[in-house]
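Q: I have 227 residues here and want to know how they pack in 3D. Can you give me a structure?
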Amino acid sequence: MRSALVVPAAGRGDRLGASRPKALVPLAGVPLLVHAVRRAVASGVVDVVVVVAPVVACDEVRTLLRPVAPTVVVVPGGAERQDSVRAGLDAVPDDVDVVLVHDAARCLTPPAVFAAVVARVRAGAPGVVPVLPVSDTVKRVAAERVLETVDRSELVAVQTPQGFSAPVLRAVHAAAVPGAAATDDAGMLEALGHVVVTVPGDDRAFKVTRPLDLVLARALLDQEVGP
Protein backbone atom coordinates (compact mmCIF):
# COMPACT_ATOMS: atom_id res chain seq x y z
CA MET A 1 0.00 0.00 0.00
CA ARG A 2 1.30 3.42 -0.98
CA SER A 3 0.01 6.95 -0.54
CA ALA A 4 0.35 9.81 -2.99
CA LEU A 5 0.25 13.53 -2.35
CA VAL A 6 -1.24 15.68 -5.12
CA VAL A 7 -0.66 19.42 -4.75
CA PRO A 8 -2.59 21.64 -7.17
CA ALA A 9 -0.23 24.64 -7.25
CA ALA A 10 -1.10 26.38 -10.50
CA GLY A 11 -3.12 29.21 -8.93
CA ARG A 12 -2.16 32.87 -9.12
CA GLY A 13 -1.23 35.02 -6.14
CA ASP A 14 -3.46 38.00 -6.89
CA ARG A 15 -4.93 38.37 -3.40
CA LEU A 16 -1.45 38.17 -1.93
CA GLY A 17 -0.40 41.01 -4.17
CA ALA A 18 2.21 38.73 -5.70
CA SER A 19 3.52 38.84 -9.25
CA ARG A 20 4.13 35.09 -9.31
CA PRO A 21 2.10 31.92 -8.65
CA LYS A 22 0.85 31.82 -5.06
CA ALA A 23 2.62 28.54 -4.31
CA LEU A 24 5.97 30.17 -5.11
CA VAL A 25 5.49 33.21 -2.87
CA PRO A 26 8.27 33.11 -0.25
CA LEU A 27 7.73 32.63 3.46
CA ALA A 28 10.94 33.32 5.39
CA GLY A 29 12.78 32.99 2.09
CA VAL A 30 11.28 29.61 1.19
CA PRO A 31 8.31 29.17 -1.20
CA LEU A 32 4.99 28.18 0.37
CA LEU A 33 5.02 25.03 -1.78
CA VAL A 34 8.33 23.85 -0.34
CA HIS A 35 7.10 24.34 3.22
CA ALA A 36 3.93 22.38 2.42
CA VAL A 37 5.67 19.43 0.75
CA ARG A 38 8.38 19.28 3.42
CA ARG A 39 5.76 18.83 6.15
CA ALA A 40 3.86 16.23 4.14
CA VAL A 41 7.01 14.18 3.59
CA ALA A 42 7.92 14.53 7.29
CA SER A 43 4.66 12.74 8.16
CA GLY A 44 6.15 9.46 6.96
CA VAL A 45 2.92 8.49 5.18
CA VAL A 46 3.59 10.02 1.74
CA ASP A 47 5.31 7.76 -0.80
CA VAL A 48 4.66 9.70 -4.01
CA VAL A 49 4.57 13.47 -4.53
CA VAL A 50 2.86 14.98 -7.58
CA VAL A 51 2.77 18.75 -7.98
CA VAL A 52 0.60 20.49 -10.56
CA ALA A 53 2.33 23.74 -11.49
CA PRO A 54 1.90 26.58 -13.98
CA VAL A 55 3.33 25.59 -17.36
CA VAL A 56 6.01 28.28 -17.19
CA ALA A 57 7.11 27.22 -13.70
CA CYS A 58 7.36 23.42 -14.01
CA ASP A 59 11.15 23.36 -14.27
CA GLU A 60 11.53 25.80 -11.38
CA VAL A 61 9.23 23.69 -9.19
CA ARG A 62 11.19 20.51 -9.94
CA THR A 63 14.44 22.21 -8.95
CA LEU A 64 12.94 23.59 -5.74
CA LEU A 65 11.43 20.29 -4.60
CA ARG A 66 14.12 17.75 -5.48
CA PRO A 67 15.99 18.29 -2.17
CA VAL A 68 12.70 17.68 -0.31
CA ALA A 69 11.14 14.96 -2.47
CA PRO A 70 13.78 13.56 -4.86
CA THR A 71 11.29 11.60 -6.98
CA VAL A 72 8.75 14.43 -7.26
CA VAL A 73 6.63 14.45 -10.42
CA VAL A 74 5.65 17.87 -11.77
CA VAL A 75 2.91 18.27 -14.36
CA PRO A 76 1.32 21.39 -15.91
CA GLY A 77 -1.98 22.61 -14.50
CA GLY A 78 -5.33 23.25 -16.15
CA ALA A 79 -7.78 26.12 -16.39
CA GLU A 80 -9.72 25.21 -13.23
CA ARG A 81 -8.72 23.58 -9.97
CA GLN A 82 -10.59 20.40 -10.91
CA ASP A 83 -8.60 20.18 -14.15
CA SER A 84 -5.36 20.53 -12.21
CA VAL A 85 -6.28 17.86 -9.67
CA ARG A 86 -7.22 15.51 -12.48
CA ALA A 87 -3.90 16.16 -14.20
CA GLY A 88 -2.12 15.31 -10.96
CA LEU A 89 -4.26 12.24 -10.41
CA ASP A 90 -3.37 11.00 -13.91
CA ALA A 91 0.28 11.06 -12.85
CA VAL A 92 -0.31 8.96 -9.71
CA PRO A 93 0.90 5.34 -10.10
CA ASP A 94 -1.73 2.60 -10.24
CA ASP A 95 -0.41 0.87 -7.10
CA VAL A 96 -1.33 3.84 -4.88
CA ASP A 97 -4.33 3.13 -2.63
CA VAL A 98 -4.67 6.52 -0.86
CA VAL A 99 -4.49 9.94 -2.49
CA LEU A 100 -4.08 13.15 -0.50
CA VAL A 101 -5.03 16.43 -2.16
CA HIS A 102 -3.38 19.36 -0.41
CA ASP A 103 -3.32 23.13 -0.88
CA ALA A 104 0.19 24.54 -1.07
CA ALA A 105 -1.18 27.65 0.63
CA ARG A 106 -1.80 25.57 3.78
CA CYS A 107 1.94 25.49 4.10
CA LEU A 108 2.20 25.01 7.88
CA THR A 109 -0.09 21.99 8.18
CA PRO A 110 1.52 19.71 10.80
CA PRO A 111 2.74 16.27 9.70
CA ALA A 112 0.36 14.63 12.20
CA VAL A 113 -2.65 15.82 10.19
CA PHE A 114 -1.42 13.99 7.09
CA ALA A 115 -0.93 10.82 9.13
CA ALA A 116 -4.39 11.04 10.67
CA VAL A 117 -6.08 11.47 7.30
CA VAL A 118 -4.28 8.53 5.72
CA ALA A 119 -5.06 6.31 8.72
CA ARG A 120 -8.77 7.12 8.49
CA VAL A 121 -8.90 6.33 4.76
CA ARG A 122 -7.10 3.06 5.36
CA ALA A 123 -9.67 2.29 8.05
CA GLY A 124 -12.33 2.25 5.34
CA ALA A 125 -13.52 5.82 4.71
CA PRO A 126 -13.89 6.74 0.99
CA GLY A 127 -13.14 10.38 1.80
CA VAL A 128 -11.67 12.20 4.80
CA VAL A 129 -11.36 15.90 5.59
CA PRO A 130 -9.65 17.64 8.53
CA VAL A 131 -11.96 20.18 10.15
CA LEU A 132 -12.15 22.85 12.85
CA PRO A 133 -15.31 24.07 14.61
CA VAL A 134 -16.68 27.39 13.40
CA SER A 135 -16.23 29.95 16.15
CA ASP A 136 -17.70 33.02 14.44
CA THR A 137 -21.40 33.82 14.30
CA VAL A 138 -22.58 32.96 10.79
CA LYS A 139 -25.48 34.66 9.02
CA ARG A 140 -27.15 33.95 5.71
CA VAL A 141 -27.40 37.13 3.63
CA ALA A 142 -29.01 38.15 0.34
CA ALA A 143 -28.74 41.60 -1.25
CA GLU A 144 -27.06 42.94 1.93
CA ARG A 145 -30.01 41.84 4.04
CA VAL A 146 -29.61 39.32 6.84
CA LEU A 147 -32.04 36.46 6.32
CA GLU A 148 -31.14 34.32 9.32
CA THR A 149 -28.48 33.42 11.84
CA VAL A 150 -27.20 29.96 11.06
CA ASP A 151 -26.83 27.39 13.83
CA ARG A 152 -23.08 26.90 13.95
CA SER A 153 -23.22 23.77 16.14
CA GLU A 154 -23.20 21.62 12.99
CA LEU A 155 -20.80 23.81 11.00
CA VAL A 156 -17.09 23.19 10.51
CA ALA A 157 -14.30 24.83 8.54
CA VAL A 158 -12.65 22.33 6.19
CA GLN A 159 -8.89 22.15 5.69
CA THR A 160 -6.47 20.04 3.68
CA PRO A 161 -5.01 17.51 3.12
CA GLN A 162 -8.20 15.81 2.04
CA GLY A 163 -7.71 12.07 1.73
CA PHE A 164 -9.43 9.59 -0.56
CA SER A 165 -9.54 6.00 -1.61
CA ALA A 166 -7.67 6.20 -4.90
CA PRO A 167 -10.24 4.18 -6.92
CA VAL A 168 -13.09 6.32 -5.59
CA LEU A 169 -11.34 9.61 -6.39
CA ARG A 170 -10.45 8.42 -9.89
CA ALA A 171 -14.07 7.40 -10.53
CA VAL A 172 -15.42 10.71 -9.23
CA HIS A 173 -13.12 12.73 -11.49
CA ALA A 174 -13.96 10.51 -14.46
CA ALA A 175 -17.66 11.24 -13.89
CA ALA A 176 -17.22 15.00 -13.39
CA VAL A 177 -18.00 17.61 -16.02
CA PRO A 178 -14.69 18.87 -17.48
CA GLY A 179 -13.91 22.46 -16.55
CA ALA A 180 -16.38 22.58 -13.66
CA ALA A 181 -15.35 24.92 -10.86
CA ALA A 182 -15.26 22.49 -7.93
CA THR A 183 -13.84 24.11 -4.80
CA ASP A 184 -12.80 20.83 -3.20
CA ASP A 185 -12.69 17.15 -4.03
CA ALA A 186 -14.69 16.08 -0.98
CA GLY A 187 -17.64 18.03 -2.37
CA MET A 188 -17.38 16.05 -5.58
CA LEU A 189 -17.61 12.81 -3.58
CA GLU A 190 -20.57 14.12 -1.60
CA ALA A 191 -22.41 15.04 -4.81
CA LEU A 192 -22.21 11.41 -5.96
CA GLY A 193 -23.36 9.97 -2.64
CA HIS A 194 -20.02 8.84 -1.23
CA VAL A 195 -19.43 9.08 2.52
CA VAL A 196 -16.97 11.73 3.67
CA VAL A 197 -15.87 11.69 7.32
CA THR A 198 -13.84 14.10 9.42
CA VAL A 199 -10.71 14.11 11.55
CA PRO A 200 -9.54 16.99 13.76
CA GLY A 201 -7.78 19.76 11.89
CA ASP A 202 -5.19 22.17 13.24
CA ASP A 203 -5.09 25.95 13.62
CA ARG A 204 -1.73 25.98 11.86
CA ALA A 205 -3.32 24.54 8.73
CA PHE A 206 -4.90 27.88 7.81
CA LYS A 207 -4.77 29.01 4.19
CA VAL A 208 -2.36 31.79 3.24
CA THR A 209 -4.53 33.97 1.02
CA ARG A 210 -3.95 37.61 2.02
CA PRO A 211 -0.85 39.60 3.03
CA LEU A 212 -2.03 39.42 6.66
CA ASP A 213 -1.93 35.62 6.48
CA LEU A 214 1.74 35.80 5.52
CA VAL A 215 2.42 37.88 8.63
CA LEU A 216 0.76 35.24 10.80
CA ALA A 217 2.60 32.43 9.03
CA ARG A 218 5.95 34.16 9.59
CA ALA A 219 5.16 34.59 13.28
CA LEU A 220 4.25 30.90 13.66
CA LEU A 221 7.36 29.84 11.78
CA ASP A 222 9.53 32.02 14.01
CA GLN A 223 7.89 30.40 17.03
CA GLU A 224 8.74 26.93 15.73
CA VAL A 225 12.43 27.65 15.24
CA GLY A 226 12.81 29.99 18.19
CA PRO A 227 14.29 29.14 21.59
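Q: Anything worth noting?
A: The radius of gyration is 17 Å. The chain has a mean pLDDT of 93.
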